[in-house]
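Researcher: We're teaching a course module on how sequence relates to structure. For the next exercise, students receive a sequence and then see the predicted structure as tokens, so they can try to spot secondary structure elements on their own. Here is the exercise chain.
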Amino acid sequence: MTPPAEPAEPADPGTPRPALVAFAGSAVVYAAAWLVAYLELPDRVPLHFGVGGGVDRWGEREDALITFAVLGIAMTALFAGVAYARIPTSMLNVPHKSWWTATPEREQRMRMMMREDGLRLGAVTLLFLAVALLLTVRASALAEPHLDAWFAVALGLYCVVMIGYTVYAYRARYRRD
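Model: And here is the predicted structure for the students to work with:
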């Protein structure tokens, strides 16, 4: 009796639950931040801030709410799409690709890890955007609207997390077993 042939493509790797919960939770946080903006934004809203934090572009409340809603929906769809897309192996860029794609089991594990990475990075991005949205709401309520140092702190933290995770993924996460 001959053993069954191995499938040409690995099965769907599934979704790591903690990453999915983090991603869904961050989407809910962004939606809550948008609701705060809906309730709190005045008729005239700062839409862009210069390097020093001063407002250099104003807009209407409705325009701001639409922009923030589209941004949140687009980022959620983008990261979910990246995480769940079935990208051909030839188009993937991963350290030690030939090792990861040598067996169906390894490729399945690699795809699960990549899905998890997409959801994690999406969660961090949505949280950063929620903070930026809330800081915009706060700035719009000031007598002299401006972004303060909290935006620089949030942006710096976001960059450190994204760069740190990228280095971790390249140097450790995708190493050969």
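Model: If you want an answer key for the exercise: The longest strand covers residues 44-49. The mean pLDDT is 91.
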